Amino acid sequence: MDRNQFVETLKAKIDEWNAEIDKLEARMRQESAEQRAEYEKRMEEMRAQRDRAAEELRQHRDESEAEWEKRRVEAERAWDDIREGFRRAWERVTT
Length: 95
Fold this sequence. Notes:
This protein is mostly helical. The chain is built from 3 helices and no strands.
């Protein structure tokens, strides 16, 4: 994957996660206080992963193709970790 594809993929996923967090916030308002506390905890985890992805996006958007090629494997590995962290937090809330 080249840098531009990576950046676009990351941007699209962040947008998707923002929509999922918004849906969860709406759903959370209908739950008991105890459930809301649990939702909020998980949403903080999801926001942290989203923010981490946004930072990755900023870094890669500004780097040159040569810099990207040097860091590509590291960036893709970091992205896999971020995506997995969001997925785990999401599953704990929705199951």
